[in-house]
## 1
Amino acid sequence: MSRDKASTMDGEVQKVFGNPVPELYEAAVGHDASPALARALELRSFLALTEEQVARVRDRVHADMDPGRDMGELSADKLRFDAQWLEAALDARDGYRAALGELLRTMPPPGRRARPVRREQLKVTAALSPSAAPAPQRPGAARARRP
């Protein structure tokens, strides 16, 4: 994906996992790589790609609006399309940043595994009072309709 491209959250990823991003990608292919690391790097790659798209559209708009360009070359349709493209890329970037930030905030500290999931079956011990229990039906009796 976008292993070699920088993202705005590389510092946080490095801080949480304790290694530079390129080393984290190498560790993620190992047998004992944590699922959280794989997910974080996947989100980070999507973020880096999306940020590159934002920069491309920004640079294209800046070039189109350069004061030295001929005004006859301006196209409102092209600028509208670029604005839509930029809006979509910014929305995607914000979504990836939020998802990656949430993942990094909710991860257990490095070196500590998450607590195992409790798989016990909980039992209800309260009994219903006799008035709360439904009365048994007689064979052939019609059920009363509720309003």
## 2
Amino acid sequence: MVARIAAQAARTAQSRRAAVPPDRSAPLAPPSASAAVRTESVRVHLTLDLPYPTDIPHACERIQQDVAQRVAQLTSLRVAEVTLTVRRLVTAADANRGRVR
């Protein structure tokens, strides 16, 4: 349950914090999450895509903060850590790949 909450929070944060410029329609895969709950705290691991170009460190930091706040808010657990793995960087060329013109 905590992992699902974290994945949804990451999806929201991903769209807010790593916004794709309007001239690009790069499809970002939905984030995945896992959570390890211990007593009254949780450690969350996220895997997600980011658009390229983007300020990767800044976007990751903001996503981690947003997810930690949302998970704590909805679960009343203390979020000990949010780690994040960037699965891939999505370019505008990725958005056009596989399309018939």
